[in-house]
Amino acid sequence: MNKQIIPQCRKLRVLQFSWIVLIFLFSVSVVFSQKHKETQLGGSYVNGAGEVVFSYTAVNPIVVNDNAPASPYPSTITAAGINPTSIVRISVTLNAFTHSVPDDVDILLESPSGQRSILMSDAGGSNGVSGINLVFSTSGSPIPDSTVLTSGTVSPANYMGNDGALDDFPSPGPGTLTNEPADLTVFNGTDPNGTWKLYVVDDKGADTGLIAAGWTLSIVVPLSPGIVSKTADTDDGTCDADCSLREAVTSGANQITFGPLFSAPQTITLSGSELNIPNSFILTGPGADLLTVSGNGLSRVMRFGINRINFVSGLTITGGVADSNGGGGIHNSGLLLLLNSEITGNSGPIGGGIRNLTGGFLSVTSSSVSGNSTNSNFGAGGIESSGLIAVTNSTISGNSSTNGIGSNAGGIKSRDGVITNTTISDNSAAGPNSAGGLYREAGTLTVRNTIIAGNLNNSATPDTFENGGTGMSSTGFNLVGNPGLVSAFNQTGDQTGNGAAPLDPGLLPLNNNSSSTRTHALQLNSPAIDAGDSSNSVIDQRLMTRPFDFPLVPNISDGADIGAFERQDTDATDATLFDYDGDSKTDVSIFRPGPGEWWYRRSSDGGNFAAQFGSGTDTIA
Questions:
Q1: Which residues make Cβ contacts (< 8 Å) with residue 519, sequence separation at least 6?
Q2: How far is CA 502 from CA 447, 452, 520, 580, in A?
Q3: Most exposed among 26, 27, 468, 578, judged by the fewest C-beta atoms under 10 Å?
């Protein structure tokens, strides 16, 4: 039994930016699992040199047609809101490149302001490749002329002329090129914002190929820090020694942190207008228990625009009230990564806590969305998403949709997405064809190792609902109190109740539970304990060890618990110590570590006792 406990959020803040990379990688894997319904994704982080890296991926495959331009042609990536507007350097990755004769493939990159560089032309000879990842960077050696290509980092090279032919990129490309540079430094110092174009052409017959997972553009810009030093909601357009959160945002800072004032709990109360985020940034708060940003019942709290990449961690968003566009706490049209945060006590049509629009991507990790509400016909109290979502190691609790007319959800109403290691409980919805917990509106919504139980719909107990079809899917180890008409939860490790006998998840009330974000702790007799699968996650919402195996509880898989909370042996008990069923009566547990040796634990004093007797074939009668 592993008793190591991973330190709490505040102790891990020095590692905060490594989390950005992890979330970015997870986001990419999510979008590929969604059958390429979204065309662009990305992430951001601060590298070891103190620079900000924005990475965008055009995830749709590029089909390399025989002796013709590829499809699509060009493949595009749109960057927006990057500040400062001066590139330090870029790199380009071809994801899962396959071709029978790479020598026939010509690739050209064009920036929004018209600078161009060949990435490869007449490289790799006639040595076929399959599924390789090529990273084009100034730090690599030139891509080989005639030897076999392998995955790795290379610098661009143009071997045009080796076969006596010029590079031709037909319209809408630039046409026939003579001595076009193969040099990524031509982009340095230029504005990265706008549409980048990747032109791919096969210039010989009898061969085809594929860039199966699209391409990635990484843009490095200087760090532009903004340090918030006060709680007043002022705005003089600059972020100097006297800097508000609004001033840090409007000044275009791409890394926002908080000064010594915020080592104790503080609230920033907005003065009547939302924070409309103009650029892509990384905002690292001191902790959800230390920093609260309130709309004060007068406005939404934050709005994130299209094609922006924004990372927000370590704060509580509350008191937001949305206009008709929804999203009382957060309104997102871009790519938003939310970590170690609380979205609570917000209201508005469509999405009381968060609204994620079509084309947006929302990742919620190690966070709590609770106590939000909506009164719209087709909304959700907690999160409403018509874009793509990934909810991981998070708690969705106590949200409500009170309109009794339309199809609503108390917790989450979503189209495409993935929900993993999450607890959705104590939410409520009114109206026909609604779900107390989770509602799939369209697309494919995949659920794994998640509790969806204890939610209400019209005083009944259907926790889930889907709007036609069978797009909600389970990949196992879910606990659903009453799935209603949803038939997905029949995979390995799934537990379900029904309308007559909903399955009780054995949850304690929402509490901090040694964390800056709130969770539902598991009772000692919860059916979720050791009944899950960690899904390659090493921590729970609180950053505690996952899986943490209790040896007296049979494992369904690797000993992980279902939901956002992984019970540790140091967690406070909800009953008399070692009273395993919580009935306040003495219990005795018995186990045998080896032949002829027996151990037992008595709940009256929690003592462990060992005895040796009998033979190795003895059994309990």
A1: 368, 395, 423, 510, 511, 512, 513, 540, 541, 542, 564, 565
A2: 19, 11, 18, 22
A3: 468
Sign of CA dihedral 335, 273, 414, 462: positive
Computed on alpha carbons and rounded to an integer, the radius of gyration of the chain in Å comes to: 27
Angle at 151 between CA 147 and CA 155, to 5 degrees: 70
pLDDT of 482-534, one tens digit each? 999 999 999 999 999 999 999 999 999 999 999 999 999 999 999 999 999 99
pLDDT in tens, 444-481: 999 999 999 999 987 777 999 998 777 899 999 999 99
In whole angstroms, what is the distance from residue 235 CA to residue 256 CA?
Answer: 15
Q: Which helix (H) or strand (E) holds 32?
A: helix 16-33
φ/ψ of 393, rounded to 5, equals 50, 50
Banded pLDDT at 598 (limits 50, 70, 90): low
pTM of the model: 0.83
Task: Provide the pairing of β-strand 215-222 with 255-258.
Answer: unpaired
Interatomic CA distance for residues 455 and 484, integer angstroms: 12
Three-state secondary structure call for residue 222 = strand
φ, ψ (nearest 5 deg) of residue 504: -85, 120
Of 353 and 431, which is predicted with more confidence?
353
- Provide the b/e sequence for 400-415 (b: ≥16 CB within 10 Å): bbbbeebbbbbbbbbb
CB distance 121 to 227 below 8 Å: no
Instruction: Give the pLDDT mean for 572-601.
Output: 58
Label the pairing between strands 335-339 and 309-313. Answer: parallel
User: In this structure, are strands 194-202 and 105-110 parallel, antiparallel, or unpaired?
Assistant: antiparallel
* Distance from C-alpha of 430 to C-alpha of 413, rounded to nearest angstrom: 13
Query: Mapping DSSP to helix (H, G, I), strand (E, B) and coil, where does residue 566 land?
Result: coil
Which helix (H) or strand (E) covers residue 53, if one does? Answer: strand 51-58
438: nearest Cα among 487, 476, 486, 394: 486
Q: 417 CB contacts (<8 Å, ≥6 apart)?
A: 30, 34, 385, 388, 389, 390, 391, 443, 445, 446
Cis upstream peptide for 509 (omega within 30°): no
Phi, psi of 395 (to 5 degrees): -120, 130
| Token pair belonging to 30 | 């999510």
Dihedral sign, Cα of residue 429, residue 431, residue 432, residue 433: negative
Instruction: For residue 486, give both structure tokens.
Output: 């949803």
SS3 267: strand
Non-local CB neighbours of 563 within 8 Å, separated by 6+ positions: 421, 422, 423, 449, 450, 451, 479, 505, 520, 522, 528, 532
What counts of helices (H) and strands (E) characterise the chain? 2, 52
Q: Which residues contact 54 (CB under 8 A, 6 or more apart)?
A: 42, 44, 79, 82, 192, 218, 219, 221, 280, 309
Reduce the secondary structure of 544-563 to three states and give it as a string.
CECCCCCCCCCCCCCCECCC
DSSP assigned state of 536: T
What is the Cα–Cα distance from 286 to 280, expressed in whole angstroms?
Answer: 20
Report DSSP letters for 468-534, one per residue.
SSS-EEE-S--EES--TT-----STT-EE--SSSPPP--EEEEE-SSSSS-EEEEPTT-TTTT-B--
Distance of alpha carbon 520 from alpha carbon 373, whole angstroms: 19
Encoded amino acid at 169, one letter: F
